[in-house]
Fold each of these.
Amino acid sequence: MQCEFCKIIRGDAAAEILFRNQRAIAILDINPIHYGHVLVMPNNHASTFLDVPDEELHDLISVTKVVTQAMVASLNPPGFNIFSNNGRAAGQSVFHCHFHITPRYDDDKIQFILKLKKYADDEMARYAERIRHYIDTNPIHEIH
Ligand SMILES: [Zn+2]
């Protein structure tokens, strides 16, 4: 398998490993937004967040919190971002699901360039109804 993150998880490629347990691993991003930028991912290959099995999500989120706490306590940034890019359109470059945790500093000039939209008329209700309809008609996606 050519996945760069699977190579790290198997021990076939080098990385600064911060923490790992049976289901998830945290490493430093080699191209950080700020020094101390962490990546957390499941040990089992999953292309996007939606491909991570439910039973692996708890550890993925727990490790994300543990490592965020450690990063914040040790580096003392006044803020942090946690985000995950899923799909090429969203900026995903390694197709092994991962969360980014990056320190943030006042006036660090890092910004997502967003052009926020306004819903017209009943458009917001229609979007909500489309999503709710899927949830209501797919009991396999029961929310716990
Ligand atoms: Zn992988």
Note: The chain has three helices and five strands.
Amino acid sequence: MTDATNDIQASQGQLYPRRVYPMDGHDLSEEQIAVAFAMTSRRPEAFDEIAEKVSHEKAADFHERWVLGYGHASVAEHAIVHIAVENVSRLACDTLEDNRLASYTEKSSRYQVMPEDYYHVPDELAQHPALKKEYEAACQTLFQSYFKLIEGCIEHLRKTTPRIASERDGAFNMRLRRVATDHCRAVLPAATLTNVGVTANARTLEHAIAKLFSSGLAEEQDLGDAVREQSRLITPTLIKYADKVDYLERASGLQLDLAQRFGFPSEEPSDSENSGTGAPEVRLVHWDRKGEEKIVSALLYRHSNLAYEQVLERVKDLGSESRQAIIDECVAGIGPHDAPPREFEVVDYQFEFMLDYGAYREFKRHRMMSYLPQPLTVAHGYRIPSLVSEAGLESEFGAAVSTAEAAYWKVREVSPLAVQYLVTHAHNRRVVSKFNLRECYHLFKMRTSEEAHFSIREPMIEAMRLAVDVQPQFFRHLKLRNYPDWWPHPIEG
Ligand SMILES: Cc1cc2nc3c(=O)[nH]c(=O)nc-3n(C[C@H](O)[C@H](O)[C@H](O)COP(=O)(O)OP(=O)(O)OC[C@H]3O[C@@H](n4cnc5c(N)ncnc54)[C@H](O)[C@@H]3O)c2cc1C
């Protein structure tokens, strides 16, 4: 039995002394841990006693019977897998990362200069050699332009950036390169490769694999296969049946058919005529006019013995001033790193964003929201980063993007899915997203600060302005690192 000495001492003399100990300190596999935890529902022994009796075979039998046979899928959440994924396209990485209940850290194009020819060539073009050549030429143009833009921007920055006192040459050059890289990544395509570290439980991973397998893109299907194969080394039984899901595979094609059947237009080559002008757009498409009553009802419900309807009726009678005073009292004293109470989750905001792909990739990493992106396209134009314009490199940027756009419309004829690889990080994408007031606090705090990338900072400030405009009272206690000029509340020190 594990020596949970501290806890046993702390609870001396008690019939059932408290014990707290890590299960992974027992040389157990992830699947054995999951079984030991699952068995506590029916067995009286301590976890480590149960674990001693759970061999690998027993664990496998248990999972086959209960998790897979009877569908007790939550047991699989106790088995954790760490998977390192290297050299996948950003497009495929987006699908891999499209799972809320997992953790990811990805190679950043903000801080690293990508190497030459670091892009994926889709199998979808294997039967079309001429097109494949054009695709590769377009990617090469984008990468060559990326290097030229970085050097051009560094040159410009060297003339315009004052040195920090006592800054050495090396540090100064590094700083300039970092700023240039941060802007010039915009010209890279979605085909650009990346590395990502994934930590997920076996249940989430199974879902992630099913999504990859059910994708229409060959790279994503292959990635699903590789993730399944490697995950099985850690959790052989729990990942055993991860496979394509017919329903998922059908879903996106079906939605496309429906959109066409009901006359919703898809993109046309003429749509890209507005290239180079696409500024980010933000619209607040829904907000909850009963939000104040709902938050206060939630706050008072917790400690009353009334039914929710009864609480709501009483709260309606309180009047707005009292309701706001209740909210203020509950949130007063919130620190810059504190989350507001869970009751803030009862109020939702729905936004529509037109974000460039670079900003979108940062935005979608926030897992406490629902987001529905349209496919990557060149049809909504692109944004030239300010530094590129200041350095007089707009035409270099525009020429590279035009080459990619010309190839885009040709590849689209062959594969409307694989064509997304050619969309650059500067191209705009529409996404509709819903998040609650509690996540607003987190998102706005993080993504409106000066540390946030400028491409996401601007739309997030606008989203915050729209939300604060309709319900200023809810944001009175939001602690920001940098307040905009229009902030309507007194700013506490
Ligand atoms: C300046 C900056 C640089 C960045 N650089 C990189 C980078 O180089 N590479 C990279 O991959 N990412 C990078 N990120 C992204 C960042 O690490 C987050 O993944 C992303 O911003 C999502 O925010 P979040 O994790 O706080 O949580 P959200 O997903 O918005 O969720 C809100 C909160 O819920 C909780 N939460 C959500 N999911 C989990 C979970 N699975 N486990 C535990 N708690 C959870 C946390 O408290 C979290 O803060 C960067 C972000 C910033 C602001």
Note: The chain has 18 helices and seven strands.
